[in-house]
Recover the amino acids of this structure.
């Protein structure tokens, strides 16, 4: 009887399993997660897409739409920026080179008398007991030279007669005008203060070079010269032989205010006509202890097309055009 009951129970369970299997379907799997509905691109399909929005399809679009941005790298690599190229330097062109003239005069008259040994650069190392007799002296010199006016960038020119520069442009300025620098007067007279003394002076020609620039309305001329006086004589049969540069010191003091600086700056107020600039000054210098050298200095500069000795025919300078 018990055996029959067990067989009936097994048959009942098999029947229920078959019934449930047919209800669920053989391929379906029951899980806790629910798959997202597939969009049919119409309102009511459970998906907010296409032209649907909260206004025209509230059934599908009740929740806020979350826009997901693509992740960005934590340390993005910045594109390297090309460094700006430096402009190439502007080189002077030979075709833009022109010619000018620098002319200078200097006169020195010394008042004789007793004084001290002077200060540098007039100081006399042979002066004894701090007392010196300064003799009457008259010196004069002139210098003239052609120069090249070379363009050197934007509104800048180099002005020079240095042969190492002019040669680079294939020019010999001596063919244009020979440079001259010479004393036209030189004398010394000790008799006003020392009648027992006699002296003679020699003053040969000297070198004269120019290196300058024109820029921002200013012409700066740096002169290089070596005028030298040689004096020989005797006082009561005691001979002497001196080498001095009194003209040079007075010349520099007049142009720049410094007896060791032979340079000068010339602006457009010194232009008396197109292409022609002139400056003249008088000053007293050589404190020993009072100034005893009276100096007059003249400096002229002009631009030229053709240069004829002792003839000034200026034309407009390049910076005036």
């Amino acid at each position: 009887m018990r055996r029959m009951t067990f067989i009936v129970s097994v048959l009942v369970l098999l029947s229920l399993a078959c019934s449930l299997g047919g209800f669920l379907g053989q391929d379906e799997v029951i899980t806790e997660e629910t798959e997202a509905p597939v969009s049919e691109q119409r309102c009511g399909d459970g998906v907010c897409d296409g032209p649907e929005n909260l206004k025209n399809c509230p059934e599908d679009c009740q929740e806020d739409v979350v826009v997901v941005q693509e992740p960005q790298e934590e340390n993005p690599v910045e594109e390297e920026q090309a460094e700006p190229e430096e402009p190439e330097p502007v080189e002077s062109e030979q075709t833009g080179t022109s010619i000018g003239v620098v002319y200078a005069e200097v006169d020195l008259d010394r008042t004789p008398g007793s004084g001290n040994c002077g200060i540098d650069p007039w100081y006399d190392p042979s002066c004894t007991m701090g007392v010196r007799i300064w003799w009457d002296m008259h010196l004069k010199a002139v210098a003239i030279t052609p120069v090249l006016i070379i363009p050197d960038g934007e509104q800048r020119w180099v002005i020079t007669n240095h042969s190492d520069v002019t040669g680079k442009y294939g020019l010999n300025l001596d063919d244009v005008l020979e440079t001259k620098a010479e004393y036209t007067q030189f004398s010394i007279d000790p008799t006003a203060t020392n009648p027992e003394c006699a002296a003679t002076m020699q003053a040969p020609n000297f070198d004269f070079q120019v290196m300058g620039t024109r820029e921002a309305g200013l012409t700066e001329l740096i002169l290089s010269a070596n005028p030298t006086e040689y004096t020989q004589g005797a006082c009561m049969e005691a001979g002497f032989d001196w080498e001095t540069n009194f003209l040079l010191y007075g010349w520099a003091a007049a142009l720049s205010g410094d007896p060791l600086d032979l340079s000068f700056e010339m602006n457009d107020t010194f232009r008396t006509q197109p292409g022609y600039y002139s400056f003249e000054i008088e000053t007293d210098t050589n404190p020993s202890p009072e100034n005893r050298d009276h100096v007059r200095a003249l400096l002229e500069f002009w631009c030229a097309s053709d240069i004829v000795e002792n003839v000034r025919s200026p034309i407009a300078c390049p910076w005036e055009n």
In short: Residues 94-320 form one domain.
